């Protein structure tokens, strides 16, 4: 594409981190840039290259972005052994912001995070005031009894017809009935886990502080695994908290967790592209105080829409 540039970069401590900066080439970029990184152990391009596609959408709308691998994942080297996983990820994200600040003069950032990356994004947003907005996909969810029951029933009905059912059933039986089958997590980057109640306390306290600081937040949930949603089910008890009224919440039944369908990709790119564009082109504090940045984006002509092939 001749209306944007893609520059591979190495940065961070000892130049251990690898990523790509995508910038508009035909216009002055916005003063807010976007950071994207790994979803679990996936490469920085994201499942079905969704991060690359989003970078193209944003560049066409005048927004710079950096998508990169966290240390020890993809092409990035693991260089920080003195801290826990969460601290290492925070340092890597701050290194990405430092890079764009030193090379492009950009000092405010939107972070797009998915799945396990949501905790990292929330943590760095709490610690670093350069983060002014977060788009969080399929991160923390706290469905209550009715939502869990409905999900269980839907899965039970659909499971036998799923191609992976036989293999999953076999592995479940092995884990629960065969002593020789190890259930201990292998050592590695993504083995640090917390109890659900600990996650709930942390999520509520952290999100409240972010909202109080006027960080714009988009929560986006997919319809994977036969999830249903009635009135912000994925927020569970938090949907009744005053601070959640400042969040943009969106449940997409036709979108799956790994963007398998072209329609699902388009839905994600449209929603997140609008959100990031509105945040990037808004006017500082006035933008962050807006109830719904996506509404502002909808008022502008849609440019750079990406149609997955």
Describe this structure in words.
An 8-stranded mixed beta sheet has the order 1-2-4-3-5-6-7-8, sandwiched between helices. The chain has helices at 50-60, 85-104, 117-127, 145-158, 165-177, 196-212, 262-281, 284-288, 293-298, and strands at 4-11, 17-24, 32-36, 65-68, 108-114, 131-137, 216-222, 248-252. The protein has 309 residues and is an alpha/beta fold. The radius of gyration is 20 Å and the shape is globular.
Short summary of the structure?
This protein is α/β, with parallel strands linked by helices.
Instruction: Output the CATH homologous superfamily.
Output: Alpha/Beta hydrolase fold, catalytic domain
Helix content: 25-40%
State the total count of DSSP E strands: 8
Query: How many helical elements?
Result: 9
Could you name the CATH topology? Rossmann fold
Task: Report the CATH architecture.
Answer: 3-Layer(aba) Sandwich
Mean pLDDT: 85
Rg calc: 20 Å
Major sheet: order of its strands? 1-2-4-3-5-6-7-8
The largest sheet is: 8 strands, mixed
Shape: globular
Q: What is the first-to-last residue Cα distance? A: 16 Å
The percentage of residues in β strands lies in 15-25%
Report low-confidence residues grouped into runs of 5 or more: 185-191, 283-309
* Structural class by SSE content: alpha/beta
Helix-strand sequence? EEEHEHEHEHHHEEHHH
| Count of individual domains | 1
């Amino acid at each position: 594409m001749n209306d944007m540039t893609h520059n591979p970069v190495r940065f961070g401590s000892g130049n251990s981190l690898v990523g790509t900066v995508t910038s508009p080439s035909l216009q002055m970029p916005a003063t807010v840039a976007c950071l994207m990184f790994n979803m679990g152990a996936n490469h920085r391009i994201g499942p079905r290259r969704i991060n690359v596609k989003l970078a193209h959408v944003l560049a066409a709308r005048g927004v710079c972005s950096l998508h990169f691998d966290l240390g020890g994942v993809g092409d990035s080297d693991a260089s920080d052994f003195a801290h826990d996983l969460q601290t290492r990820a925070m340092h890597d994200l701050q290194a990405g912001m430092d890079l764009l600040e030193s090379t492009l003069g950009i000092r405010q950032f939107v972070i797009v995070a998915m799945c396990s990356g949501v905790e990292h994004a929330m943590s760095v947003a709490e610690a670093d005031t350069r983060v002014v907005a977060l788009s969080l996909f399929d991160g923390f969810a706290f469905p209550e009894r009715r939502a869990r029951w409905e999900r269980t029933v839907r899965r039970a009905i659909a499971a036998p017809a799923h191609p992976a059912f036989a293999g999953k059933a076999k592995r479940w039986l092995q884990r629960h009935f065969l002593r020789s089958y190890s259930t201990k997590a292998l050592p590695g980057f993504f083995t640090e886990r917390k109890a659900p109640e600990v996650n709930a306390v942390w999520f509520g306290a952290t999100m409240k502080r972010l909202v109080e600081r006027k960080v714009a937040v988009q929560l986006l949930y997919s319809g994977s695994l036969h999830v249903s949603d009635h009135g912000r089910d994925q927020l569970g008890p938090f949907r009744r908290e005053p601070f959640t009224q400042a969040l943009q919440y969106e449940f997409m039944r036709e979108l799956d967790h790994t963007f398998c369908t072209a329609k699902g990709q388009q839905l994600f790119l449209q929603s997140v592209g609008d959100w990031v564009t509105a945040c990037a082109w808004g006017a500082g504090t006035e933008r962050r105080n807006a109830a719904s940045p996506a509404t502002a984006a909808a008022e502008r002509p849609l440019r750079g829409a990406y149609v997955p092939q």
